[in-house]
Amino acid sequence: MFKNTLLMAVLLIATQVLAEFSYQATIRFTSVDKELLLNAEFEKAFTLQGFSDKLKFKRIDIYSSSSIVKLFSENGNSTLSNSGRLFFTSINTAEKVALSYDPKSHNIHADIHQKNKKFHMQGVLSDLSNNKLASLKIHESSDQMEFDCLNDLYDRSEIELTNLPALNPQIIQNIDHSAANSRLGGNPSFQAAISVDTDNELMWNKFSNNTNNATSWIEDLFLNMNLIYESELDIRMQIRSVFLRVDHTPVNNPDFNADPATFNNGLTPF
Fold first, then answer.
1. 157 vs 268, which has greater pLDDT?
2. Does the pLDDT of residue 3 top 60, yes or no?
């Protein structure tokens, strides 16, 4: 689905431009790039000096206007703030980069998708005055990713899915005519507000009950989903609500069932 060439990266030890990313590649950021990230307007295309000038980014909002993040614990529930990060996606169809920047900590993170490979870039853009550079190395991720967009469902007799446009021809037709909006910048034609609910197993096993890490992980998930869905289906997916249910079982073991009757009774209202 994706072309072999992603975007150009600048080597730290030379000015040679690479045709694709590798573990040796770095991306350089200057104070100009930092200001561009801080002042970027929603849905307006811009370029960053460390990337190829053919690669354009736009700032997107992954939270809906009425979004809420709630914490549920043994002390009741409370409302939390989201991370406050700024989120950006590339808008070229052949090049997939999801980027976030935290104005408070100056942390920057990028997920770079190239065919069925994924790369990470992470670092800090703190003091970039006096023409200083931040050269951040790109690391190849161990997790393999490939986006099929239901192509893997074709020719499977048990699913009986042989003609995707027949599912909803009007929607498919609208997408075909309007997908260029999100590819070239601007608002996508469709939008979906999604709620995320966690359980205590996820909160403990994956995040050790750290709500900040859980919130950031969910944000990154939506950022990367939009990177694909906007270019392929012209749809923006936003977070409507996030429910974080921390684990408070006796030994911080979410699989420990101290009172089966109480836990099972709790499934009834659910």
1. 268
2. no
Of 187 and 149, the structure prediction assigns the larger pLDDT to: 187
Number of domains in the chain: 1
pLDDT tens-digit series, residues 102-114: 999 999 999 988 7
Assigned domain for 116 exists: yes
Is position 1 within any domain?
no
Distance of CA 223 to the CA centre of its chain: 2
Q: Is residue 3 part of a domain?
A: no
Residue type, 185: G
Q: Give one DSSP letter per residue of 180-228, joined into a string.
A: HHHHSSS--SEEEEEEEE--HHHHHHTTTT-HHHHHHHHHHHHHHHHHH
Query: Cα angle vertex 224, ends 220, 84, to 5°?
Result: 35
Tokens of 120: 């990470």
Which residues span the domain enclosing 237?
A: 9-267
**Which residues are registered as beta bridge partners of 98?**
89, 111
Q: Between 254 and 38, where is the model more confident? A: 38
In a domain, 239, yes or no: yes
